[in-house]
Write a structure and sequence with these properties.
- It is a single chain.
- The chain is mostly helical and 171 residues long.
- 56% of the residues lie in helices and 2% in strands.
- It is built from six helices and two strands, in the order βαααααβα.
- A two-stranded antiparallel sheet has the order 1-2.
- Helix 1 (14-40) runs antiparallel to helix 4.
- The chain is globular and about 45 Å long.
Amino acid sequence: RAAPVAMAPVRHTRASVLRRAEREYRDLDRAVRALSRGRLDRTVPGFGARARIRRERWTYRDALAHILAWKSWQIDALRRVPQDPELRGLTISAKNRLIYDRWHPRPARDVVAWHRQLHREIVRVLKALPDNTFKKRWSASWPNDLIGHSAEHRRRHLEVRPDGATVPARG
């Protein structure tokens, strides 16, 4: 296995981060619309493998809730809001399990509504951040949970191929 390649830190601008966040929202929204409500409740093969219990099947709706929860936590971090006390000290798998437990019982329409509401909040927060936030050198993927992490899960678990199937999850 090759060693990971370190990305040189870069300076971002408010406008560039807003553009990237908007582009990821549009791509995610297109995937959500393509799945429609009925398909959002279907099982995603392989999704949640490290956090789920045996024989439990996580759905496209669960994958969307996962993406949104991490986006929400990223926004809280940018605003310097203290982390949810339930999350402190949890492994990533345990955090993902918590997302599932909180959102799995909810209907698809609630998760889709959160998707749209959260994007409006993301835009408001990014516009309100102090200028010096963008003057620091960050990784090229910053803020990752708003853009890169979302895009990775969208591509792996939510995007629909032209034949109507979703892209299969990788290991």
